[in-house]
Write a structure and sequence with these properties.
This protein is α/β, with parallel strands linked by helices. The protein has 9 helices and 8 strands. Strands 1-4-8-7 form a 4-stranded mixed sheet. β5 and β6 form a beta hairpin.
């Protein structure tokens, strides 16, 4: 996929190449200045799949797009991709093991369930206004490693969305990483991570993901990375759209929440992560966008609540 030569002129994505079905009424613009997140007592989702008592055997035989996705996630988080390739041709069976669930994890799993339910309520309403039907994704909780339709992944890759099975995968230990390693604590920072992955599900339902993958398959490595950046920044914007509508409908935000989300977006920008992992920054290898870009697009979504403001593919400036 990445072995084609890079053309002399950068590729420009035109509306003819990627037409996004954004037909939502523009919501009243509002910037939230205050945010701990009000989530306790909220509805819990029925779409949480708890695999924390299961151990996954790695299955990467055959490679394919699932493997590529997970290796890109590994690169994004600055970890050694070889960690994902150990035991490559194993069966992929799940075996039961005894896992001690701490009270903190129990609280985190309830939090994840409530946030997922809130994204369901928000996106169902937005899809209904667009004349469509939102299909709820599943959210899988796992410990250590997991097998998905996109391949085998260890917890080090962080949360990810697999378009092959319409599932979001999260090891709750990532929230500790977010707080301690990335120095982005707070409920809403965690909610932002979940909402970003749900944003990828929205892209999948709208047909954006398939079109993007088709474009990436016809592109050189640098161009493919640039396309991935636009996809990821749009997911950040979609996370902001969710926050706008969720707060307007259910007043979920408290003082400091938005700042926590912006801090998380800053902490996991490609430039910040590459500097921490390598000591230098290589913009051509970005797959998720810089800290500044991630913050900009999340703010655009949360300020407007308008999906049309998230058209990163036709934006002159990211």
């Amino acid at each position: 996929m990445f072995d084609r030569p890079v053309p002399e002129r950068p590729m420009v994505l035109t509306r003819g190449q990627l037409r996004l079905p954004f037909f939502v009424e523009v919501a009243e613009s509002k910037i939230f200045r205050e945010a701990l997140m009000r989530w306790r007592g909220g509805r819990e989702s029925d779409n949480v799949e708890d695999r924390r008592g299961l151990r996954a055997a790695p299955t990467l035989a055959g490679g394919g797009i699932g493997t590529v996705i997970l290796l890109l996630v590994a690169w994004y988080f600055g970890i050694d991709p070889s960690m994902l390739l150990q035991g490559g041709s194993s069966s992929g069976a799940l075996t039961q093991q005894s896992v001690q669930v701490s009270p903190a994890n129990d609280e985190s799993s309830k939090f994840v369930s409530v946030v997922l339910a809130d994204t369901e309520d928000t996106w169902r309403d937005l899809f209904r206004k667009m004349g469509g039907t939102y299909q709820d994704p599943k959210l899988v909780l796992f410990s250590g490693a997991v097998q998905s339709a996109c391949g085998f992944a260890q917890a080090a890759v962080g949360p990810f969305y697999c378009p092959g099975d319409h599932k979001v995968y999260i090891d709750l230990s990532f929230f500790d990483e977010l707080k301690n390693r990335f120095r982005a604590p707070g409920d809403f920072a965690q909610a932002y991570v979940i909402a970003h992955e749900i944003g990828h599900h929205v892209q999948n339902l709208l047909g954006i993901s398939d079109k993007v993958e088709s474009l990436r398959a016809r592109s050189g490595k640098v161009e493919a990375n640039a396309i991935s950046v636009r996809l990821e920044l749009q997911a950040d914007c979609f996370a902001g759209v969710w926050a706008f509508h969720a707060n307007r409908a259910r007043q979920i935000l408290e003082a400091g929440d938005v700042e926590a989300a912006l801090n998380a977006a800053t902490a996991i920008g490609d430039d910040r992560l590459q500097m921490q992992a390598r000591g230098y920054v290589a913009p051509d290898s970005f797959t998720h966008g810089s800290s500044t870009q991630r913050v900009r697009w999340f703010k655009r979504g949360i300020a407007s609540g308008d999906l049309r403001q998230c058209d990163t593919f036709n934006a002159a400036q990211l």
